[in-house]
Each structure stands twice: as structure tokens, then as C-alpha cells.
Design brief:
By secondary structure, this protein is an alpha+beta fold. It contains five helices and four strands, in the order ββαβαβααα.
């Protein structure tokens, strides 16, 4: 079997606030690393203002990403990978916010309730992004009502 027409999969990159309300969405193929998609996700935000802090998992432990976000006035909070070669840049006080990362996981769990997002039926990326945005609209309506 060779590679399928639609590729190996797709990633949904999302940014949410403290109550799991989606603030930015970006879809991409499954092959690029998450660190390279952070700036595109921030650019596709629904609001004009940028967040003060971003909390990510160990995959977001990147010094070039930290410098790029610091230039935009955003603080990146991510625990260090176990194989990190440079010195530590995070201390325990900032990493206390990491324990609230479950709130973005809750947003993805809510999105998984929509079968059309779990099994990608759309061939084009724009249509899939539209379905993800529609799912976020339904989540927002449920939270508001």
C-alpha cells in the first residue's frame, strides 16, 4: 500500500482561554512539527489581541520558539524535554500554570464529539477547517446558552 490521496492525516492546532473557549484554529497536515505551526495558529486568531502566555506540553520546548514569541510579547510555558542539551529556562513557579493545560484538552474532547471531525470526510483542507470552525461555533453556543 502506498500513501493515500489525502495524506497520512491532519492536525488541528487550537488556542483557548481558561474556560476552554476557542480563540484560534489552524489545520495542517500531520507531518510538520507543532513548533512550526504555533505562529500560524496565532495569526489565525479570532481576536486582534495576542495572549500574554501560552502553555504547551514538552513538544513546545524550543529556544527559537521562545525567542520568536518573546519578540511578540508572549511568554511560552512548557516543561523541558528529558534530552535537552542547553540549560534550563523554566523554573517551578511558572510551571504551576502547566497543571491547567487540561482545559485545552477539554476543548479537543468537545470537538471529538463531532463525528465529522474524528473521521475526516472532507477532501480539501478549507472544507475541513470550516467544519472545525462550525464545531467551535456549536461549542460557543452551548456555553453561552
Amino acid at each position: 500500500m502506498g500513501k493515500t490521496k489525502r495524506g497520512k492525516g491532519s492536525k488541528i492546532m487550537a488556542l483557548s482561554d481558561g474556560s476552554s473557549v476557542p480563540l484560534a484554529l489552524h489545520t495542517e497536515s500531520a507531518s510538520p512539527h507543532e513548533v512550526t505551526l504555533v505562529e500560524a495558529t496565532l495569526a489565525s486568531g479570532f481576536l486582534k489581541e495576542k495572549p500574554q502566555r501560552l502553555v504547551g506540553d514538552k513538544a513546545y520546548d524550543s529556544d527559537p520558539l521562545d525567542e520568536a514569541l518573546k519578540g511578540q510579547g508572549i511568554e511560552m510555558i512548557a516543561p523541558h524535554r528529558s534530552n535537552r542539551k542547553q540549560g534550563k529556562t523554566q523554573d517551578g513557579r511558572k510551571l504551576r500554570r502547566y497543571k491547567r493545560r487540561w482545559k485545552i484538552e477539554r476543548l479537543f474532547a468537545w470537538l471529538q464529539n463531532f463525528r465529522r471531525l474524528v473521521v475526516r470526510y472532507e477532501y480539501k483542507d478549507e472544507n475541513f477547517l470550516g467544519m472545525v470552525q462550525l464545531g467551535c461555533i456549536v461549542i460557543l453556543l452551548r456555553k453561552c446558552l
